[in-house]
């Protein structure tokens, strides 16, 4: 495992239990890092021993941005880390989103913390073909939203849904998502939401890339904690994914 030491530049709470961490770390070939890849993060002297897998939100020069939810012991320890603290970083890991086929109208659909990789994805899509793509973001939150304003710069339209109706549509992000409006779709979010999008994709035949939200431990496919079912048998989200074609996935 090739961990390197980075320095935390900031670690701010955006809304309740949602944090944005920016880490300064030596990066080689930043242009080869893909949206949808993830990093293993852990404090240099902090338990638990196992690191936490965190999706890359943005890469810029020698800075990595991560958006994460404080949901367990590991992320709770990450949330306690301060500016100038050292943090151990290993990555990028996983396959990331495929943007080579992007053309026409692109739909990005995310739920909650699943919005994290969509900033880098939107940037990469716009950089690849700034004039010929129309990019829509559909995103759902419980009540308050985050990261949307940063993504707006790179997309054409934003559609927000919230459980409470505080912002945008009251209900699920999938309620008003018409997959047939798009030539290509990218998805990340809670399993229930992604299963709905997967079903839409299979019915419509619209090519859809899904970043699976599975619990991960080792990050290299050795522990099999993050196994998911595909038409080609069981696959490991950390090693074979986390991004898969919707048509290849079985939902439960």
UniProtKB/TrEMBL annotation:
Pathway: Pyrimidine metabolism; UMP biosynthesis via de novo pathway; orotate from (S)-dihydroorotate (NAD(+) route): step 1/1. Residues 1-99 form the FAD-binding FR-type domain. InterPro entries: Cyt_c3_hydrogenase_gsu, Dihydroorotate_DH_ele_sf, Dihydroorotate_DH_Fe-S-bd, Dihydroorotate_DHASE_ETsu, FAD-bd_FR_type, FNR_nucleotide-bd, OxRdtase_FAD/NAD-bd, PyrK_electron_transfer. Pfam families: DHODB_Fe-S_bind, NAD_binding_1. Signal peptide: none annotated. Its cofactor is [2Fe-2S] cluster; FAD. One of its GO terms (biological process) is 'de novo' UMP biosynthetic process. FAD binds at residues 52-55, 74-75. Binds 1 [2Fe-2S] cluster per subunit. [2Fe-2S] cluster binds at residues 218, 223, 226, 238. GO terms for molecular function: 2 iron, 2 sulfur cluster binding; electron transfer activity; flavin adenine dinucleotide binding; metal ion binding; oxidoreductase activity. Responsible for channeling the electrons from the oxidation of dihydroorotate from the FMN redox center in the PyrD type B subunit to the ultimate electron acceptor NAD(+). Belongs to the PyrK family. This is Dihydroorotate dehydrogenase B (NAD(+)), electron transfer subunit. It comes from Clostridium frigidicarnis.
């Amino acid at each position: 495992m090739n961990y390197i030491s980075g320095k935390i530049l900031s670690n701010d709470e955006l809304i309740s239990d949602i944090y944005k961490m920016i880490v300064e770390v030596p990066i080689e070939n930043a242009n080869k890092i893909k949206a949808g890849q993830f990093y293993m993060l852990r404090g240099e002297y902090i338990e638990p021993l196992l690191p936490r897998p965190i999706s890359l939100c943005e890469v810029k020069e020698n800075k990595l941005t991560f958006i994460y939810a404080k949901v367990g012991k590991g992320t709770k320890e990450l949330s306690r880390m301060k500016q100038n603290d050292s943090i151990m970083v290993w990555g990028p890991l996983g396959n990331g989103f495929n943007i080579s086929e992007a053309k026409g109208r692109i739909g990005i659909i995310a739920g909650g913390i699943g919005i994290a990789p969509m900033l880098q994805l939107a940037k990469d899509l716009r950089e690849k073909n700034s004039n010929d793509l129309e990019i829509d973001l559909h995103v759902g939150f419980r009540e308050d939203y985050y990261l949307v304003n940063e993504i707006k710069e790179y997309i054409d339209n934003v559609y927000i849904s919230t459980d409470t109706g505080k912002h945008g549509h009251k209900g699920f992000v999938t309620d008003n998502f018409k997959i047939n409006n798009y030539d290509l779709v990218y998805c990340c979010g809670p399993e229930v939401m992604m299963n709905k999008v997967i079903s839409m994709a299979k019915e419509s035949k619209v090519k859809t890339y899904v970043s699976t939200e599975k619990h991960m431990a080792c990050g290299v496919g050795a522990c099999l904690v993050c196994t998911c079912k595909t038409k080609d048998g069981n696959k490991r989200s950390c090693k074979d994914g986390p991004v898969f074609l919707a048509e290849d996935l079985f939902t439960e």
